[in-house]
Specification:
This protein is an alpha/beta fold. It is built from 10 helices and 12 strands.
Amino acid sequence: MGWRNGLAVMVVWSLMVGLTACGEAEGEHRMGGKEDEKRSAPVVEAEAVPAREKREWQSDYRIRVPQEWGEQVTGVVSRIQTSEQAIALTLDACGGDQGSGYDRELVEFLRKQEVPATLFINKRWLEANPKTLEELASDPLFTIENHGTEHRPLSINGRSVYGITGTPNVEAVVEEIEENQRAISERTGRKPRFFRSGTAYYDEVAVEIASELGVKVIHFDVVGDAGATWSAEEVERALMASRPGSIIILHMNQPHSGTAEGVIRAVPRLQEQGFRFVKLDEYL
């Protein structure tokens, strides 16, 4: 087997491990409690009423039969459309028993180098790290976006991937998106515009529902750390394959992974090549 085939096998295997486990749990998940309860939530502007009542449009979707299932189905954005030397770092915070840590080294490097990033936050990670979430939301380098409530594949009929069962119906799709929308809005005072599901798998009907709810579904064209399972060398090599318009996926919830070191090595090299790092909301 050639090295390219070997690398492809490694990528698939790493994605399966990384997306299902998300590594070791660590972070503020044992903190919070009464002190956090006393914190007053930011004032959030009233949400606009959908063009149609939810009961009406949800019933329309219940009779649909999905024709697509995967990572890049119709309606999913995998790249930003630009001819500039612009690339977007996106950092997922998956949450849960195996993924509620905080890679402070990674985030502090981005701050020191003034490198912006779009942060996709899962509700479980938010609940484990409420103070950190508010701190990140107050930093203009970062934009907080929605990584789902229970970190599930987004499906209207319970499709599964990597052993993780997707949302079982239309109502569950809405809840997977909207419950975390409310949680992030209450903590940050800003309603997310972008959504990425747990595992990054969808059917095309669920993507349409996301659009109806006012969020754009974001994928990627560069796998940066395979669920925080890759070494620093592998992360560096993956990032150096970026092209103008690339969206890179990395993870900020695994401080013991090779992600931070790989990013620290790759970012200066990419900047030397003329690349500029951007947030998604600059282009989408």
